UniProtKB/TrEMBL annotation:
Family note: Belongs to the ComF/GntX family.
Domain of life of the native organism: Bacteria
Species whose genome carries this gene: Streptococcus equi subsp. ruminatorum
InterPro entries reported in the protein's UniProt record: ComF/GntX_DNA_util-trans, PRTase-like, PRTase_dom
Protein name: ComF family protein
Length: 221
């Protein structure tokens, strides 16, 4: 196989049984690249899976002070390897990389979120036109995971252009599409959870329209 990240050809030969027992990522990247990604096993912040915090992190404390509930989980730490991955996937448009964590995400959802309707975080029309795809829905589609496209983005300001203080202040960046029917249990799906402002914005819009059972999941934190 050729690793999707370094493109080196792995000389490792695996039986069908061995492949089935290994991580879903095993057949898509080599061992050397796999070792650079850090799976979150025992998160320090129980509310958002932030790493290296004793108890609730400062972001979650700030949200709770404003009266918001945080119920988020992530698969991986947002380290240098993950940053490089998303740079290639999102900003350089390497569409093949949508497959890298898709099956692992699907496995986690099927195990822990039975009965929840998946709702991806939307991208603006401008970002979609630039990139050619929504990085979240592309992963879900590769994994054959059904989802409901409930939201549209109405503010195109990049989160990366804002200060942390600005990110922790909610604004009306998203709105439900007209005529959207809300399911009872919703799992919001994002690629990266930073301060939580994106998830909080979507969550509050759902609550405003009567939805109460809302959880969120991202590939990285």
């Amino acid at each position: 196989m050729n690793c999707l990240l370094c493109h080196n050809n792995s000389k490792e030969t695996l039986s069908i049984t061995a492949i089935l027992l290994l991580s879903p990522n095993k057949a898509l990247m080599c061992d050397a690249c796999q070792r650079h990604f850090c799976r979150i096993i025992q998160p320090d912040c129980p509310s958002c899976y932030q790493y290296r915090h004793e108890g609730a992190c400062q972001d979650c404390i700030a949200w709770k002070r404003q009266g918001y509930q945080v119920d988020h989980r992530s698969l991986y730490q947002y380290n240098t390897a993950m940053k490089d991955y998303f740079s290639r996937y999102k900003f350089q448009g390497d569409y093949a990389l949508r497959s890298l964590f898709a099956q692992e995400l699907a496995k986690h959802i099927k195990k822990y979120y039975k009965g929840y309707t998946l709702v991806p975080v939307p991208v603006s029309k401008q970002r979609y036109d630039e990139r050619g795809f929504n990085q979240v829905t592309a992963i879900l589609e590769y994994a054959n995971l059904a989802y409901l496209d409930l939201f549209e983005r109405i503010d195109d300001t990049r989160q990366s252009s804002k200060t942390k203080k600005e990110r922790l202040q909610l604004n009306n960046r998203y709105q439900l599409k007209k005529g959207a029917a809300l399911p009872q249990k919703i799992l919001l799906i994002d690629d990266i959870y930073t301060t939580g402002s994106t998830i909080m914005s979507l969550r509050q819009e759902l609550i405003r329209h009567g939805c109460q059972d809302i959880k969120s999941l991202s590939i990285a934190r």
